């Protein structure tokens, strides 16, 4: 029977409640993803009177600033090892900083007189930047903390499911409450009162989820789970981090794969793209958008279960590759259907409800099947690279003896955030090619060439991104068998160090799985 790794065994398993609670950290930060990234430009323009162009530019600029600060916070995290652990301080600090900055931004800044616009601009930028630092602190833990939570190949894939649930718990609460409070009979359309009320509601939800996440990682946030050397590990210099990243080929390939999956999801689900598809082309945004999103989530549920099952049997690489391939094949069907689309032709148009009730043709049936299966497959794989970061962290411990989950997670996060900030820019540039000066809305009529833009953004860009993901995974060495070997070698080294051997001696003594005692092999 395998026991705790501190007693000399290969597997460090998490308890069920830990697997469920720790991913809620992602939900805690996604509260602010909605509260800030979705509404801060509107707040700056409508409430503070800041120029809309400036407010919109700040959203993109701060997203890039957020990505840049990730590796810095990651490096600091790797050097942290106090009485409160390595990860919990960043969760608490991040939560407090975000709460204080949001109160300052949404509640206090509007009290600045309108004739002191210079101060409004200054506070807007300053408080937004402070919020970004808090956001970076807490989001960095989501990826880095997995390295200590579990290294069981049957448990790590479960993080994808609980991560999605946690994300929906945070985002869903804000997306549900926000429109209700914005009703004419409540506070009105995203005015000063709405922001003053939503801020404390969002903070309360985020703090509650943070507390649960801290409980989830509490027992694991201690030195005996920090790699093979525990609290004996030496701190690294910044220059050493650069060399480590260069040498860690699996992380490099995972960053490409994760960026590909994120780009596919963020562009294909961009609201502007969906407006052009369901409203401008198909002519019924209200009747198509929500049903198709619900359909996509319904299809995604079984794929989440299948991806986890595949990952548990064959490894996370095999699972990601298999279902990205399926998404790619299905979107070939979606691509063909969009090429066949003809404006005004009922036989080559997407329709669910007509004037006389249900109106479904062969085109609609095929679109639902191809889109549903394809969307379900790629939505289930979009966050799959996140738990794979922990495998890369284990690989780095195996390769160099260093336990640096902070820098591993934040380097991956840097690419993730840069890609997501790029998606809006790609969509905006694409729209200009058909002569539009502003992003289309439901009231925008169809413009010649719009179908080409939709084909490119809704199909071809995701398909190219998935192709890039598959290429990256082809040379990714951390399949299920390799990960098990690495964990066994790390366990043997850890045991040897606990028995008095130096790190260097342990690294030299155990290099391949055949040198590892039988009881430590998974």
UniProtKB/TrEMBL annotation:
InterPro entries: MFS_2, MFS_trans_sf, Na/Gal_symport_CS. The keyword Transmembrane applies. SUPFAM superfamilies: MFS general substrate transporter. GO terms for biological process: carbohydrate transport; sodium ion transport. Its EC number is 5.3.1.12. Pfam families: MFS_2. Keywords: Cell membrane, Isomerase, Membrane, Transmembrane, Transmembrane helix. It is found in: Cell membrane. One of its GO terms (cellular component) is plasma membrane. GO terms for molecular function: glucuronate isomerase activity; symporter activity. Transmembrane segments: none annotated. It is a multi-pass membrane protein. It is an enzyme of class 5 (isomerase). Its main location: membrane. This is Uronate isomerase. It comes from Intestinimonas butyriciproducens.
